[in-house]
């Protein structure tokens, strides 16, 4: 082989080697780029994270059902919803022998309709059963109009003490409340404001139910027995990320952040977790958090 041929062959081998290295580097870069494309990310947000649940709640009031003292025709003496004093005359019964009066035994708001629960919702009895079981009970409702014929013992009116209103509701699986615990309630059908409440007691049925006392009286609840409520057990403010983004090696917890063309690990402290979200410390709002960290860890 001549020197010229040998030199040409050497140059060819060198070019081939350079091409192989370039191809390998290009492939590695391309694979890294493809791998980054396969990462799913979410922006860390600074917001409130609420621990809440929804439930159908039974409205429990301090109320007294008034009944007719004799057979006759009932006549309403005050307007429905009026607040009356104790011993105020709310209705009269015209009998064959004269007129009998129906008086309010306590001060409160008078209503001339009822749902049949008034005499059944005693707290000791109530707490023995879950709300779902009380829903199976169908008491007789009714109302009084002027001149209606009644018999002795028939319901005439009810007096509601508006100073205290309670809600009785079932707790979802995995959710617990404790006596004296403070919560907030949202009841869109009742008010557009949140209402504070305190846990009075827990029921002994299955599922466990909780009796809550509202901080303030809402007159609209006088006319209902059931209400849809959202119960907020806790509220956490901070940087919120998907819980799936958090990884642990047994000693520390952290998340992977995407920084343009690379991925970095940041240690975080989990302040609270509610279902699929978590409040963490250690990263900033706007950070791109990797939500499928198994891809980074090679899993």
Describe the SSE topology.
Blueprint: H1 3-37, E1 41-43, E2 45-67, E3 72-76, E4 83-84, E5 89-95, E6 98-103, E7 108-111, E8 113-114, H2 123-126, H3 131-134, E9 142-143, E10 148-150, E11 155-170, E12 182-186, E13 195-202, E14 209-214, E15 226-242, E16 247-248, E17 253-259, E18 262-274, E19 277-281, E20 288-290, H4 294-297
Antiparallel strand pairs: 1-20, 2-11, 2-15, 3-5, 3-10, 4-7, 5-6, 7-11, 8-9, 11-14, 12-13, 12-15, 13-14, 15-19, 16-17, 17-18, 18-19
Structure in words:
The strands form four sheets. This protein has a six-stranded antiparallel beta barrel. Residues 14-34 have low confidence and may be disordered. The chain has three domains: 1-37; 41-49 and 236-297, conserved putative lor/sdh protein from methanococcus maripaludis s2 fold; 52-235, RNA polymerase II/Efflux pump adaptor protein, barrel-sandwich hybrid domain (OB fold (Dihydrolipoamide Acetyltransferase, E2P), Beta Barrel), CATH 2.40.50.100. With 299 residues, the protein is α+β, with helices and mostly antiparallel strands. The longest helix is centred in the first third of the chain and has 35 residues, at 3-37. Helix content is 16%, strand content 46%.
């Amino acid at each position: 082989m001549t020197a010229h041929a040998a030199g040409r062959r050497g140059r060819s081998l060198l070019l081939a080697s350079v091409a192989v290295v370039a191809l390998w580097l290009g492939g590695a870069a391309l694979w890294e780029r493809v791998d980054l494309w396969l990462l799913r990310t979410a922006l860390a947000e600074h917001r409130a994270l609420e621990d809440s649940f929804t439930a159908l709640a039974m409205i429990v009031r301090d109320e007294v059902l008034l009944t007719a003292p004799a057979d006759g025709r009932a006549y309403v003496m005050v307007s429905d919803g009026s607040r009356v004093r104790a011993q105020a005359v709310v209705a009269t019964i015209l009998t064959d022998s004269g007129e009998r009066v129906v008086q309010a035994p306590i001060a409160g708001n008078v209503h001339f309709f009822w749902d049949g629960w008034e005499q059944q919702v005693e707290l000791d009895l109530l707490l023995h059963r879950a709300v779902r079981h009380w829903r199976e009970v169908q008491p007789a409702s009714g109302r009084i109009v002027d001149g209606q014929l009644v018999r002795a013992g028939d319901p005439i009116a009810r007096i509601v003490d508006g100073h205290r209103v309670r809600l009785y509701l079932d707790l979802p699986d995995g959710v617990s409340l404790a006596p004296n615990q403070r919560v907030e309630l949202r009841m869109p059908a009742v008010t557009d404001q949140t209402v504070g409440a305190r846990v009075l007691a827990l029921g002994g049925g299955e599922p466990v139910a909780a009796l809550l006392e509202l901080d303030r009286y809402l007159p609209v609840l006088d006319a209902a027995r059931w209400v849809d409520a959202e119960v907020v057990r806790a509220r956490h403010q901070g940087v919120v990320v998907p819980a799936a983004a958090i990884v642990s090696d047994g000693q520390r917890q952290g998340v992977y952040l995407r920084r343009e063309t690379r991925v970095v690990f940041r240690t975080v402290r989990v302040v609270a977790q509610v279902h699929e979200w978590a409040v963490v410390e250690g990263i900033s709002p706007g950070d791109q958090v990797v939500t499928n960290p198994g891809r980074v860890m090679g899993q």
